[in-house]
Amino acid sequence: MPLLEIAGSMNMLGYGLATLGPALGVGWIFASVINGTARQPEARGAMMSTAFIGFAVVEALAIIGIALAFVLK
């Protein structure tokens, strides 16, 4: 196998490993919202809006990561 093909595969392997960060982030965000809602149900609306903003930021980082994986290929 030429070195160029291996480098392309390593790029995608690196992105695959990098998806663990956003996955954990999304899990922690919504786990915190569930925990907060269980403790204080009347604050659910404020927590959900903050959670969706956090979710968008975390997912934006994942999208930037895949864009870089294809650009650096």
Straight-line N-to-C gap? 16 Å
In round numbers, the mean pLDDT is 86
CATH topology: F1FO ATP Synthase
> Number of helical runs?
3
Domain count: the total is 1
Structure described in brief:
The protein is mainly α and 73 residues long.
How are the elements arranged and paired?
Layout: H1 3-18, H2 20-39, H3 44-71
Helix pairs in contact: 1-3, 2-3
Describe the fold and architecture:
By secondary structure, the protein is mainly alpha-helical. It has one domain (3-71): Up-down Bundle (F1FO ATP Synthase), CATH 1.20.20. The chain has helices at 3-18, 20-39, 44-71. It is elongated. The protein starts with a helix and ends with a helix. It comes from Raineyella fluvialis.
Key phrases:
mainly alpha, 0% strand, lipid binding, 73 residues, 3 helices, hydrogen ion transport, 88% helix, ATP synthase subunit c, lipid-binding, cell membrane
